[in-house]
Amino acid sequence: MKAQPFFPVLLAMILLLAPACEPAVEQPETSALVAAAEPVTVVVEAESATGSSTSFETIQGDPAYVDMTSVGWLSYEVTFPVPGRYRVQVYARADAASTFWVEDYIDNPDGRTYNVTGSIAITPNADFSDYFVEGSPFNTGPHPMKFHLSEGAAKIDRVVFTLMKEHQPSPQSLTQKMDGSEWKLVWSDEFEGDAVDQSKWTYDIGNWGWGNNELQYYTEARPENARIENGNLIIEARKNDMGQTWTSARLTTRGKVSFLYGKIEFRARVPREKGNWAAGWTLGDSYVDEKSWPYCGEIDILESVGYEVNDETSDGIAHATVHTPAYYFKIGNQISSTKEVPNIAGEFHTYAVEWTPTEVRAYVDDEQYYLYDKNANDLEWPFNQPQNLILNLAMGGGWGGAQGMDETVTSQLFEIDYVRVYALE
Questions:
Q1: Angle, CA 354 vertex, CA 349 and CA 355 arms, to 5°
Q2: What is the phi-psi region of residue 206: left when phi exceeds 0, alpha when psi lies from -120 to 50, beta otherwise?
Q3: Residues with Cβ < 8 Å from 235, sequence gap 6 or more?
Q4: How far is CA 199 from each of CA 34, 42, 203, 220, rounded to the nearest angstrom?
Q5: How many angstroms separate the Cα of 334 from the Cα of each of 279, 291, 297, 329, 405?
Q6: CA–CA distance from 109 to each of 112, 161, 419 (Å)?
Q7: d(Cα 77, Cα 292) in Å, to the nearest integer?
Q8: What integer best gives the mean pLDDT of the chain?
């Protein structure tokens, strides 16, 4: 329920020319690559709260702060001038370990909880320090929010949102004919050459948990995490890398090209160890931040989790799913199918969907095992709007880490031979 205003809102939006404060942990080198030269920064002072779960005391001084002596929340109205991926820093101090997180769109009509930072650990310290995550998505405009303390007690000075990468919609959309008799190639990446083709792919960045409490930091154009080798795209997740628990990569055609209908196919070999979560999928081009989903629609061409791969045979399970406003996993009624795939982690297999104006069909090695044909209204069928392609390798999270992590593993590889989009002619 949205908190009712108790005090006037004091919200400062400041364009800063100076760099952000030095972080308490090693800063990923990607931040320097993607940060704007003159970062757009939104500063929210803790004492400007419009409401709270209980009467926390505001201590005046330099700095002024809110003394959250127990778990609870403070509410705010925050306005973002630019849509994109942001660093979220909380300036705080605590006598014992505490946990902080930001909830977005607390007034949403679906009863959803939009955790857009994951859990930010506040370590014991005598002075105010900043603790942060990167890559949180925010659309332009007003955002009713809550700042939560879910564990411990802490003194909160302010929260700072700094733009890292502006949202770029796709400038081109390809609509495929689906009433012919033969498949014709209209777009592809064969992953030849020496590096990822950035005329076709861009990178999502950050470690905010991606709505699933995932562990990895997605890096920007870093060969250690995304590279071309022997005609294959290699997405590598690396443990204890760059000061992060895991690093990995998430490539998307958003900002380059999107697609409406067609046959989307890729050939890949998935990783095998417990804790990984590999995926090739599409996401509606209308996605800007978490409130966009699942209204934008999502088609999961392949999902594979490591704990389902047999250690001896490398056999595993392919999952195909769509997510729509009527059917999606956070309300537990998503429509999915699975298929056992021999040697899924030892050999390359072909994964595809055929997406028509009324159906989505999924295949493994040309064998259909999934059909979604609910299209009575926009809640069931958002798939009359363009989608962009995504390839990523996550670690941990609500599904990948559901049976724990293999602590002996320090690297996982998701290998993709090609991605192709066809129309019927």
A1: 140
A2: left
A3: 225, 226, 248, 249, 251, 278, 391, 392, 393, 413, 414, 415, 416
A4: 17, 31, 12, 14
A5: 17, 18, 12, 5, 25
A6: 8, 25, 37
A7: 19
A8: 92
- Token pair 């506040």 in the structure block, residue: 122
One domain, residues 377 and 283: yes
The DSSP symbol for 271 reads -
In the set 45, 47, 134, 303, the catalytic residue is: 303
Residue 137 in tokens:
């998505």
Are residues 346 and 353 in contact, defined by beta-carbon separation less than 8 angstroms?
no
Site of tokens 């998505």: 137
Does residue 187 share a domain with residue 123? no
Q: Which two tokens stand for residue 348?
A: 């390359």
Per-residue pLDDT tens digits for 145-161:
999 999 999 999 999 99
Amino acid making up residue 278 = A
Catalytic annotation present for 22: no
What CATH number is associated with residue 87? 2.60.120.260
**Is 303 annotated in the active site?**
yes
* Other Cβ atoms within 10 Å of 230 Cβ, number: 9
CA-to-CA distance for 385 and 127, rounded, in angstroms?
Answer: 50
Which residue, 62, 68, 143, is CA-closest to 98? 68
Whether 5 is covered by a domain: the verdict is no
Q: Which residue has the tokens 């443990």?
A: 239
Write out the residue range of the structural domain in which residue 103 sits. Answer: 11-166
Single out the residue in 123, 149, 166 at which a domain terminates: 166
Q: Is 336 exposed, middle or buried (0-12, 13-18, 19+ CB in 10 A)?
A: middle
Q: Is the pTM of this model over 0.70?
A: yes
CB of 204 closer than 8 Å to CB of 120: no
**Whole-angstrom Cα distance, residue 141 to residue 167?**
14
Q: Which two tokens stand for residue 183?
A: 């498949």
pLDDT band at 37 (very low <50, low <70, confident <90, very high): low
| Two structure tokens written together for 204 | 């999502």
Q: Where a domain ends, among 145, 166, 187?
A: 166
Q: Which of 273, 290, 298, 415 is catalytic?
A: 298
